[in-house]
Amino acid sequence: VVRLLDRALVEVEELVARLDLDPAAGADAQRELRGRDQVLLADRTASVAGFRYFNVYGPRERHKGTMASVARHFHDQYRADGRVRLFEGSGGYGNGEQRRDFIHVDDVVAANLWSLERPGVSGVFNLGTGKGFSVREVIDHSRIVTNRDVPVVFGERRGGDAVSLVSGSERAISDLGWRPTRSNMGDMIADAWRWHQHGGYGG
After folding, report:
1. Which is it for strands 123-127 and 49-53: parallel, antiparallel or unpaired?
2. This prediction's pTM
3. HEC sequence for 55-72
4. How many other CB atoms are found less than 10 A from the CB of residue 139?
5. Average pLDDT in the 114-136 region?
6. pLDDT class of 106 with cuts at 50, 70, 90
């Protein structure tokens, strides 16, 4: 099972790299990814559940480094420079209106435990809200939770960055019976902020 999951992760990373390099290839890559899901699940002797996480956020994110969520990177930018950098508008989206899906780390833990309690369920599942938030909304909620002004500057969007990345979590909901219950932006930022206030992010 571990070897199968390792192989699946490598294949997912390859496809994600293709999406980053060529956003126009998104539909083809998604079809290929779904096909590889089926190959993976056909080549097994035990139940296998794999999860794709979308911007896991909340307390204890420091160890993730460059793989941390967008919200965590904003936190680091604010601490270093006293401001946050957002992308200018493009692709029909205004300044700072690019969308990302976020999921509370508690909901990720719940999905994994939920799956372990249902060993007969196999599949590869997206874990997200299916709605997403604009990066500007992340800043707006941060201002409310921390009661601080968070200055914003806008810069040119990096080449290859998608303007919207939102999960489709219908399979996790229908097959696992799982639903995110804490993945609203206010709760996620509040929990991360409490952790920071108690020294969890190193002061």
Report:
1. parallel
2. 0.69
3. CEECCCCHHHHHHCCHHH
4. 20
5. 85
6. very high
Q: Cβ(101)–Cβ(128) under 8 Å?
A: yes
pLDDT tens-digit profile of 182-192?
888 888 889 88
Alpha carbon distance 159, 182 (integer Å): 33
Token digits of residue 180: 């995110």
Name the nearest CA neighbour of 107 among 180, 39, 38.
180
Alpha-carbon span 156 to 94, nearest angstrom: 12
* Cα–Cα distance, 121 to 103 (Å, whole number): 22
DSSP character string of 169-203: -HHIIIII----SS-SHHHHHHHHHHHHHTTTT--
C-alpha Rg value of the chain to the nearest Å: 18
- The DSSP output letter for 88 is P
Residue 102 near residue 129, CB atoms below 8 Å: yes
Contacts 24+ apart (CB under 8 A), 43-49: 43/4, 44/1, 44/4, 44/122, 46/1, 47/119, 47/120, 47/121, 47/122, 48/1, 48/4, 48/5, 48/122, 49/115, 49/121, 49/122, 49/123, 49/124, 49/125, 49/176
Could you give phi then psi for residue 140, rounded to 5 degrees?
-60, -45
What pLDDT band is residue 44 in, cutting at 50, 70 and 90? low
193 Cβ contact partners less than 8 Å away, ≥ 6 residues apart:
145, 146
